[in-house]
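agent> call fold_tool(seq_1)
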Amino acid sequence: MKNTTDEKKPWGHHTCIDLYDCKPETIRDAAKIKQFVAEMCVLIDMKPFGETQVVHFGAEERVEGFSMTQLIETSLISAHFANQTNATYLDVFSCKYYDSQKAADFAKKFFGAREARVQIVSRI
């Protein structure tokens, strides 16, 4: 296994944003989720590729909610919105750099979350 170092420029930048106690009316609204994606793309300077996909599913109450995918020219934005816990699990991956903290702050505010946990991974 190769050790990652700061000596190499990352090929990709991945931010995992977990949001807790989100506003139920926002995470259960497909139009609001699409609005979020459009605004996020502008904020972090990403160009959408195709339409935002928002699908509601979950045969089990624990995982029921919308899932979203948005291809961007440099990779993908995706999320799952868990109705039972009002949580949002958002991933932003791009081979073009963007400000992870700006993305996380925007997501927290948009979904009205009380708490956010952010993990950043550089892929080399």
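agent> call fold_tool(seq_2)
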Amino acid sequence: MSIAITLHLLAAVIWVGGMFFAHQVLRPIAAAQLEPPLRQPLWVGVFNRFFPWVWIAFITILVTGYWMLFGVFGGMAKVGLYVHTMHGLGLLMVAIFLYVYFVPFAGLKRAVAEQAWPEGKKHIDRIRDLVGINTILGFLTIAIGAGGRFLV
């Protein structure tokens, strides 16, 4: 179990920490200092480097979470509400990421390739909103995981 929980936590740190950095640090600086013809390709490059890590992170989180859930704790019926809450929020985060990856990120890449900056802005704005939501959900999920039965 020590390997599973360590991998689980490291994957959460990579995913949620990366979102926090991108949303709260990189985004405001990029918006203030770069015009769309520079900013939008920057974001495509950033996401091309970060999103593979997100894929690894959420797959690791799911595999280790289910490993602990069914291999250690005996299944869904034997765990507390906080585990069910963490599970549900995690699945919601994965769904939001998959939408971001396959819809607005794909649109952003197309817009940048075509140099359609107004179209790219729409996609960046959508990604920003959803990454903000996922960051909050990530912090909430981490707090529930850390506080466990004392919070829920």
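agent> summarizing second result for user.
The chain has five helices and no strands. The chain has a mean pLDDT of 96.
agent> awaiting next instruction.
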